[in-house]
Design goal:
The chain has 153 residues and is of the alpha+beta class. Helices cover 49% and strands 14% of the residues.
Length: 153
């Protein structure tokens, strides 16, 4: 899907996106077929694990959050986000805020559901956010101003 655009205008893609897309251009067909077989097995295992559950709570990331302007930290932690299993299975997942670190950076968890259970996942996320109020809270103005001054300098 991206072949022509990557060839004609690779600069339109963020570096991290190019690094994720380009290796796919060199995957042999046999490896792709095997990956699809493994994907089907993962989907079946996940469906079995979720059979008696409306949803499950997972980590959002294996790392504490980092500043969005810290390219090294983002590069180090990007692959450790917990989206991959649900991207592969195609099952719904939504990250919701759970609080702030000591440095006032937002933390999160994921609510995941069975295949095609997006309405259930959204209802649970909405109920959680309404009950906790975390969706209404933001980093302190003092921290935001300090970070802005650090970026500007």
């Amino acid at each position: 899907m991206h072949e022509r655009d990557l060839q004609e205008r690779p600069q339109d893609y963020a570096g991290i996106t190019r690094r994720k897309l380009l290796p796919g251009a060199f995957v042999p067909a046999a490896d792709y077929v095997k990956a699809q077989q493994l994907r089907a097995a993962l989907c079946a295992e996940f469906a079995a694990a979720m059979r008696d559950l409306d949803a499950a709570i997972t980590l959002s990331s294996l790392d504490m959050p980092c500043r969005i302007d810290d390219a090294d930290a983002i590069a180090r932690t990007y692959e450790r986000q917990m989206r991959m299993p649900f991207n592969v299975t195609g099952t719904p997942a939504i990250a919701v805020p759970t609080g702030f670190t000591a440095a006032d950076l937002p933390t999160a968890m994921q609510i995941v559901g069975r295949a095609f259970a997006e309405p259930m996942v959204y209802r649970i996320a909405q109920a959680y956010c309404e009950a906790t109020g975390w969706c209404e809270r933001h980093p302190s103005v003092k921290v935001a101003e300090r970070e802005r001054s650090m970026v500007d300098s």
